[in-house]
Structure formats: structure tokens, C-alpha cells
């Protein structure tokens, strides 16, 4: 039955986009189980984090960590420090003011880096007797010397009945590390001594005094430390000494070897103007300098008291009694696991989308489905827009589920950070991830390889980021520029953004504040702003290069980077053009061209000069040469092939394996570029106008290119839409196509193609090539694998379909060629050896009968004599064990004479079997192939 539903014009951009979108949605519907498993992965991880959080909360809910009563003592007990973090402290304890002093191991001494002659000898570090160096400068040295002497007392006065008040009247210092809060002064809870500063230490320089802390009393060791006062001529000299004395200690923490520095500037009896350098050893990692609040005021108080004593006498003091922390409410102990582990876990969750997109793209490439869609009219624009939008929609849904899951179950990582920042971050990254998948898909041709490498990248990125990159982020001394360089790798950029979300939510939850807000992006310690910029720029660049490389690979030639301007370029004419007859520098020795081949070539040249509209395909000296590799010579697959094919004709190409038939088909359908020459399909040049040719072309490839989870009906609906069929015309065309190839009844049409037999797949491929009634169809061995009944049915379909379209068919079946083809071309070693209809070829190359006779070996000579009597020019073509075959020229033999001679021979010697047959197309094929083979050699 003839399919009359031909599209009047090529499908528009949006028609193609609609076809691909519908196919993708159907494909997605078939993968519901896979999608559920994909979404369950982040859900399971979120649940796991909740379970871990619940276990920790149960531990922190114990009395040991809660504000309450422990062993009949209620409220904060400084002897039980576990409760300090949770109980309200309405009246924090008063602590004596201290100076931050360097440890004896790191006090300034004379070294190659500090080559100052007034610095102590390095040997003092051996017994821990190095003094605390304090630098002074100013415009009036004598005035400055007086003030510096007044700052450091010469004796220590301790009242054992009121030790804490006594500490305030002396100058004390500590080398302990400060805490984030000062409810507990670490100097009194450390094994390190507290130092009291004096101008000179005596023999008994160590004291042990009782210190009352809440309800407990401890013995505190006080050790004398000499304050070495050194004058410098300018503030730049002080800066130089302090800079050189700033280094890393054994604990990899920053150490300041100078205790303090003072610049009295223009101070005098009437003016008090001082700049102070303070020791910032153990500055808090959060960037919040607790030393400035807890231990710097003592430096200010010392110089202030010294100036007062200069003005009013040594008995005048401005007493600095204590420092104390601000009161705090009850704060339950919190430990947000999601914020701490979210960086690593959620990196894996988001990166999991990458293998999904990559393998989907590589699958289409491996199965040649992309080129199959293109050959049936799908343009690059609709493919990119729909494919990209399709993966973007899936990624957005995935990320929404991820965020909603985390929010519903109460993960602080999601609830505390501004959702708009999260949306922008996730949106930019998934776009970058999709673009990267499109780019990397060009490097893979095997789905399994792509899958393995993609998942190695996923888990490797998470581990490297969590256990290497994070340490670089946290190390404030690590150059920020190198951090940005590492963030150029998208996986590290993702981790950095998630790390910032984690830190913001963790800090906000601990401190009772909010998480990340847009204003926080201006914070120099927050890397989110740089990450967003890097990912956005990379998204645009990667997308551009992915599209460019896709165009390069699809055309096998380099293109201008300004691909987006190609729409403004002047389009080529679609009419025939006489190409320049250039040669590629190789020589081919070909035997004298036969009359039918020469006639076809002249016909092509005439059509190029005076084109007519009834010739759908015109090939002009089309050649394909594959370069030699590994020392092998060049391979001439197609040699200056000329062919003119009008509409309504089915042209069959016969040839042995390796003759070049598939290479010819591949050039015609755009899979490969011709080495020289060209061909015109409906007036369009295959070298430059394949996109236009695809809109009116149908292809049945040698191997079935099908989506295994789509049904036969869905395949035809998709390709029918690409051919601009719509509505009832589309439905009718699909049903007629299914019926014509016997796939309509018994539910076969709605069965997944992956469950089809080989013959059913072949029939579906033929139906796809004819859907939409294309004007040019290429069929590469269409009946391969079909049973006899299906083959006969398929031949009927092709015979009906060829009425007003041009069909090029390759086959190894001589019977199929005789039934379907109006003309045949026997193709050997890259070129035609003969062209004509089956009867002409058999008449031209088959002017003989084949006579066969089987006798005993003893009577073989009798058979030869019989044949010589029938035809003196007979030729033996077969001989084995008494069975012989001969070619008898038709003009020398009458069939009646043959029968009469055989009957006579039977009376003279025994004959087992005999036969007389006319020449078949198969005989013609074998004869032409044998004759042609020796004449094609490379020079």
C-alpha cells in the first residue's frame, strides 16, 4: 500500500524541537525506576545525616553536657567545665589583665634574621632565660626612656589573702592560646606558668601562690620574666624587627617573637600620643581577634600609668583591676553534622548527575543515533536546545528534590542559608556540569568507558576536595591566588561553594545568628563571590567550545570560531555546479572504460551543464581515498564514480565485500566527506548542503540504529514528526508504515524495540527510512536477517515505495536485486564495471548455457567428446570426481540438439545426472567481479 502522507516542506525549527522533546519525554517515562533510584541517593544521604545527628543529640542530651545538677551541684561549676558551654552565665568571673607574651622557646634572640647587637644571645633559649623584648621609639628619646622605665616594676607584691587583686597591681603575662570566649582564662588552666615582668629578675624568681576560682583553690606558678627595653630611632626600624621576628613555630602556628612595641610619636609633658604594636600570637582562626579584647588593654594601661606617674609622681596609678566576659544565656550544646560533612557528601550528590548526562550523550554517539536523527532531518539547533534544556530540566528537578528533602527533615545546611543564593549557586553549577558533559562526550565512544571514568571523577573529586583542597582553604597563609587557580576545576569550585554554605550554617547555628546572606559575599574571607564568577564564566566558555567541537566532529573539518555568525553568511546556491576536476596527487591505472560506464559519465556531464529536475541524484567523479597507515598504502574505496539516478528508479549496487559500497553510501548520507568530486541530491551539494539534503532523505543503515526502550510506534512517530507530518496525517502514516512491514498486529507496534527479533528490527528500520515519503532513500542491505516470507513482503513495500522517489539499494541477494532494481551496477574495487537493467546484464555477460554432467571417472573423456560435438568453443568451468560443467555459447547450440545428444550418450555410458541452465545474475556477478579484479592496482 502506497504511503501518500508526504510532507510538503521541511520541518521547521520548532517542529523538529517538538519531535525531539516528545521522544525524550517518552524515553524518560520508560526510565521511571532509574529516576527513582537517582533521586533516592540524596534522600538516603540526608536520612543518614539525620540519623548521625540524632545519635549525637542523644549524647549531648545527657546530664554531663546539660545545664543542671551534677552530684548535688547545680548551675555552672568551674570544677566541671563540661557545663560551661551550656549553662547561663549571668555574672562571669573576673580575671586579672594579662599581656600576650611569646613562649621562652620563641623569644627574640640575635640570629641571621634578627642581626641586632642589643638582642639577647641565642644560648638563653637552652635554659629558658631569654628576656621579653619590648621596642620603643619616638621623637623625644629622653622622654621615651623615662616612660619605658615607669612601665616595668622592679619588684612584685603579692597579698596571699587577696591574690587576684594583687595580680592587678603587677604586670603579668602568658604565652597560652586564647579561646573564642574568656569565661575561663586559659592561663589559669594550663600547665604553662604565668610570667610577671620585672626590669631584672632575682635568684628566687619563681613563686607559687593560691588562686581561688569559684569554689576551688589551685596553686598557680608565677615565674619572673625580664623585660628588655630597647630603643629604636624610628618606627620603621621597629616594624622591621617585628616583621623579621614573625615566623612559624613547631605547631605550625604564627609566632611573634617581640612582646610589644611603643611609638611615643610627639608625646611630651603636654601631649600624650602613642601607637602600640601588640603581640598577636594565636590569633583566632575565625578572623575575630580575641587578644585585642582580652590581652591588649593591659598594654594600653601600662603606658597610660607610666605617663601619669611621670606627671603626678610614682604613687599615682590608674588601677586595671580585671577583665571579664559578657554575660551569656543558656546555650544548649549543638553540633550540626550536615554542616560539617555537607561539603563532601553533597559534592557527591550533585556530581552524581554528571555521569548520567555524559553516558546518555555517549550512548547516542556509540549507537550512531545522533547521526541517524540528523540524517532524517534533525538540525543541530533543535538538537542542542532540546537536549540541553532536557538535561537542565532533569537537573533542576533533581536539585529541587535534594533541597526540599534537606529542608523538610530540618538540615541546617539548607534552612539557615538564603535560598536565593543556593538557587543561583546550584543553577550555575548544573549548567556548567551539563556543558562539561557535552564537551567531554566528544572524547568517548564507549558508554562503559565513559561511565567508569565519570564515576572515578565523581568520587575522586570529593575525596581530593574534602581531604586536600579544604586544608588549603583553611590555611590563612596559603596564597589566595592559588586557591582561585584550583577553583578553576569545576569540582573544586563546587566544593568551595558547599564549604562556604557549611561554614555559614554551622557558625550561625552555634552562635544563634543567621547563615549566608547576599551581604556576606562582600566579606573577604567568604569565597562564594569568586566561585560564582568563576563558574559563570566557565559555563559560557565550556558551552561555546562544546558546540564548536561538536560542529567540527560532525563535519570532519575545522570551522571558523564565529559559528554563531553563520546565519548571516551568504548561502550557497542549490543548483548544480560544475566542480573543478582536481586530483589528489595519486595515480590509478584503470582499464579502458566500458561503453555503459562511459555513457553514464557522459549523461552526468550533460546533466551538470543542463540540469533537469527529474534526476534526484547526480554523482560527478565521486572519490574516497583513505590514507595509508602503519606502512600500508592508500586505500581507494571509491574511484571517480559517476551516476545519474532519476526519480522513480531503484538502483542496485552489487559487489563483493570491501568493494566500497558502504563508503559510497556513507558519503551520500554525510557520514564522511568525499576526497574529490561531489554529488548532488535534489540539486544540493553533499559537500556543503547536507543539512538541506537531510530534510528529504531516508536511510536504512546496514546496522539497525534504534533506541532499545522505545517502541516501534514511538520510533515512527518521532521520525514522522521530523519529516513534518502532523496530526491525523502522522497517525495515518505511522499505521500504514507498521502495516506495510507487518509490525502492526499482535501488539508488536507497542513492544519495546530492544525485545524485537533481528528481522523485526530490520523491518522497522525500513519503515523508518520510508516514513514521511522522502524523495531519496538509501537502503544498505535491507533484507539481511529476514525470513523468506518477510523478505517477500519487504520487497512489495519497496516496489510500491519507489514509484516517485529515487532509491539506492545495496545487497548481496541476486534475487532481491532482480525483483527490486530497475538498474544494477556491479561495483568492484571502488568503481562500476557495468551498469544496466538485469536483463541487459544477463544478455551482455551471459551469452552461454551451463551444461553439467555427472558420470564415473572412467567416462570423463566421453563427456568431453560429447560437449565438443555440441560446441567446438565450449569451455570447461568445473571438474571434480566425474562431475563436470561447461559453458556453451548460445549461438552454437540448440537446446533440442543437447537433449538428443544426451539420450544417445546414455546408451553408450552410464550418466548419473545432467543439466542445462541459462546464465543467472549471480553468474554475471561472479564473471564481472573475476574479470575486473586484476585490472585495479595502485601505482
From TrEMBL:
<feature type="transmembrane region" description="Helical">
    <location>
        <begin position="423"/>
        <end position="445"/>
    </location>
</feature>
<dbReference type="GO" id="GO:0005524">
    <property type="term" value="F:ATP binding"/>
</dbReference>
<keyword id="KW-0378">Hydrolase</keyword>
<dbReference type="InterPro" id="IPR003439">
    <property type="entry name" value="ABC_transporter-like_ATP-bd"/>
</dbReference>
<protein>
    <submittedName>
        <fullName>ABC transporter A family protein</fullName>
        <ecNumber>3.6.3.25</ecNumber>
    </submittedName>
</protein>
<dbReference type="InterPro" id="IPR026082">
    <property type="entry name" value="ABCA"/>
</dbReference>
<keyword id="KW-1133">Transmembrane helix</keyword>
<feature type="domain" description="ABC transporter">
    <location>
        <begin position="617"/>
        <end position="854"/>
    </location>
</feature>
<keyword id="KW-0472">Membrane</keyword>
<feature type="transmembrane region" description="Helical">
    <location>
        <begin position="452"/>
        <end position="473"/>
    </location>
</feature>
<feature type="transmembrane region" description="Helical">
    <location>
        <begin position="531"/>
        <end position="549"/>
    </location>
</feature>
<dbReference type="Pfam" id="PF12698">
    <property type="entry name" value="ABC2_membrane_3"/>
</dbReference>
<dbReference type="InterPro" id="IPR013525">
    <property type="entry name" value="ABC2_TM"/>
</dbReference>
<dbReference type="GO" id="GO:0042626">
    <property type="term" value="F:ATPase-coupled transmembrane transporter activity"/>
</dbReference>
<keyword id="KW-0547">Nucleotide-binding</keyword>
<comment type="similarity">
    <text>Belongs to the ABC transporter superfamily. ABCA family. CPR flippase (TC 3.A.1.211) subfamily.</text>
</comment>
<keyword id="KW-0067">ATP-binding</keyword>
<dbReference type="Pfam" id="PF24526">
    <property type="entry name" value="ABCA12_C"/>
</dbReference>
<dbReference type="GO" id="GO:0006869">
    <property type="term" value="P:lipid transport"/>
</dbReference>
<dbReference type="GO" id="GO:0140359">
    <property type="term" value="F:ABC-type transporter activity"/>
</dbReference>
<dbReference type="Pfam" id="PF00005">
    <property type="entry name" value="ABC_tran"/>
</dbReference>
<dbReference type="GO" id="GO:0016020">
    <property type="term" value="C:membrane"/>
</dbReference>
<keyword id="KW-0812">Transmembrane</keyword>
<dbReference type="InterPro" id="IPR027417">
    <property type="entry name" value="P-loop_NTPase"/>
</dbReference>
<dbReference type="InterPro" id="IPR003593">
    <property type="entry name" value="AAA+_ATPase"/>
</dbReference>
<dbReference type="GO" id="GO:0016887">
    <property type="term" value="F:ATP hydrolysis activity"/>
</dbReference>
<feature type="transmembrane region" description="Helical">
    <location>
        <begin position="36"/>
        <end position="56"/>
    </location>
</feature>
<feature type="transmembrane region" description="Helical">
    <location>
        <begin position="383"/>
        <end position="411"/>
    </location>
</feature>
<feature type="transmembrane region" description="Helical">
    <location>
        <begin position="340"/>
        <end position="363"/>
    </location>
</feature>
<dbReference type="GO" id="GO:0005319">
    <property type="term" value="F:lipid transporter activity"/>
</dbReference>
<dbReference type="InterPro" id="IPR017871">
    <property type="entry name" value="ABC_transporter-like_CS"/>
</dbReference>
